[in-house]
Amino acid sequence: MSTSLSRINASAATLTKNRTEGSITPSSGMCVTCVDGCIGMCEIGKSAYRGHEVIYPQPFGVITTASEKVYPVDYSHFNIMGTAVGAHGIEADSDKAIFPAVNLEVAFGHDKGIKFKLPLVIPGIGSTNIAKNNWEGLAIGSAISGTGLTIGENVVGMDPEAVIKDNRILETVDLKRRVKLYQDNQRDGYGAIICQANVEDTRLGVQEYAIEKLGVECVELKWGQGAKDIGGEVKVTSLKKAQMLYKRGYVVLPNPTDPDIIKAFERGAFKEFERHSRVGMVSEEAFAERVEQLRQAGAKYIFLKTGAYRPADLARAVLFATKYKLDLLTVDGAGGGTGMSPWRMMNEWGVPPVELHSLLYEYAARLADRGYEIPALAVAGGFTFEDQIFKGLALGAPFVKLVGMARAPIAAAMVGKTLGRTIEDHQVPVYVERFGTSKDEIFVTAAELRKELGNDEFESLPTGAIGLYTYYERLAQGLRQLMCGSRKFALEYISRDDLACLTHEAANISGIPFMTDVDKAAAEEILSG
Predict the structure, then answer these.
(1) Residue 329: phi, psi to the nearest 5?
(2) Closest by Cα among 389, 396, 372, 260 to 322
(3) Residue 393 pLDDT > 70
(4) What is the pLDDT of residue 131?
(5) Do residues 380 and 331 lie in contact, with contact meaning Cβ atoms separated by under 8 Å?
(6) If residue 482 lies in a helix (H) or strand (E), which one and from where to where?
(7) Residue of 395, 502, 526, 413 lying closest to 464 (CA atoms)
(8) Residue 522 and residue 501: Cα distance in Å, rounded?
(9) Is the Cβ–Cβ distance between 174 and 158 less than 8 Å?
(10) Helix (H) or strand (E) holding 479
(11) Is residue 321 part of a domain?
(12) How many CB atoms are closer than 10 A to CB 451?
């Protein structure tokens, strides 16, 4: 008997549910008995009166969303291998080889000039409300943590205060704010703020502006993401803003300049416009030309972000990034989180993380065997905790240097921000009040940050930033513990040999040995001795 890997026709993401939740047809997701007279709580029913609106997760602007599809293989199908012998990167001495001594710093780029305190990057937070409303916490938290943060697509195009002339950006408020929040809190040269661009951003000259006017050193080309295979989209509740975006060249649905559409909007027939970006058209010639343009504009480091496209596209990404000497390639697996990707698309398209990242390793190794120097690689796609981070780094070792996460850092920043509001309002929830009622009592890193930053700077820190910093602090300690158990005291020593597969399917996909096949030769040698 086959088991469906997908949930169909009812999800919290689309604010829908089945009438008979205990009796559902697996293939269609419909209630076994669909009754005449039902008000339409399921996705089919809601689509009968809200149509295309139900394609997207809801409510827009206050949520992030990721696939709920159960993939046949995921990172839980791997276990981390520890050992009782020796140490890599430190003297094999019990008094020295302790987990706080594990070094989590990473340096990458053509000149190894980009330094992160932790192997983490947020791979693209763009023009959605959820990103804009939490940017303060994300930017400052990333900066004081010494990690990477990517400004995603369409930020300039969505900025009503941006000055655009002859389809080129002359001035922008939002992009400048986002860059400055990071730069003003960056410490000792650690971390990086990265400016990403899609089709519309490239036409507006956003990256050239960021380099020349804002001092951004790292720029990123974008070939999509793990959540969708079309351009970015958002919802717009203002007719005036929808018309502005339409004038700037975006695809806006329905047409906000159509008199009939305007009348329908004004009488409340619908309350939101959709703004969509165009899909990119990749060719090697255009890619090479754009890389050269960015270098001529003064970009110090150039990255590429690609999504869960078919394997041939991954091969192109690996080859192009290598051939044109890029500094980082990020590969984002299917199901990844987003602010507003189409819900069914998020669940049903693309290559899942384990399969995609296994192919990434295979392609990189093949080029390396031919003498190519592979750029630093980053993997993304549902990573949340230290064990997954270790596995992502190990599966792609020695090429993978970073793990990309978006939803988890946003969640940490949002919780920190929310707790800050409860502190200010003297309404700390009972669940949290057991730790205290002030920033210093609630956030376990407060004393450390106050000492490092000083009282004045600490007091000015938004609690969203403290939340992100504290979450990263947990990940760092957890990762150090796992690495110490594997006797790897710096990131460069993590290897594929640190993993074993719990299923034969995972072993077939990844090339990592099945659990009982690990160390066969070594065990035989020991026993024969």
Answers:
(1) -120, 120
(2) 372
(3) yes
(4) 87
(5) yes
(6) helix 463-485
(7) 413
(8) 18
(9) yes
(10) helix 463-485
(11) no
(12) 10
Confidence (pTM) = 0.95
- Range of the structural domain that residue 50 is part of: 12-55
Q: Which residues contact 61 (CB under 8 A, 6 or more apart)?
A: 128, 129, 130, 133, 235, 339
Cα–Cα distance for residue pair 496/333, rounded to 1 Å: 19
β partners of residue 125: 151
Residue 440 tokens, joined: 């210093």
Terminal Cα distance for the chain, rounded: 49
Q: What are phi and psi of 390, to 5 degrees?
A: -60, -45
Is 32 inside a domain boundary?
yes
* Number of domains observed in the structure of the chain: 2
Out of 252, 276, 300, a domain closes at: 276
Mean of the per-residue pLDDT values of the chain: 95
Whether the Cβ atoms of residue 363 and residue 318 lie closer than 8 Å to each other: yes
417 assigned to some structural domain = no
Contacts of 334 (CB under 8 A, 6+ apart): 67, 71, 226, 227, 307, 308, 349, 350, 351, 352, 353, 356, 381
Q: What angle do CA 334, 223, 248 make, to 5 degrees?
A: 120
Domain annotation covers residue 191: no
Q: What percent of the chain has pLDDT over 90?
A: 90
- Given 223, 246, 276, the domain boundary residue is 276
Average pLDDT over residues 441-456: 96
Q: In 3-state terms, what secondary structure has residue 361?
A: helix
Which CA distances in Å does 147 have to 130, 191, 388, 466? 20, 4, 18, 14
Q: Are strands 192-197 and 273-276 parallel, antiparallel or unpaired?
A: unpaired
Distances 450 to 131, 439, 456, 466 between C-alpha atoms, Å? 27, 11, 9, 11
Strands 148-151 and 192-197: parallel
Q: Which parts of 212-327 are beta strand (E)?
A: 218-223, 233-236, 251-253, 273-276, 301-306
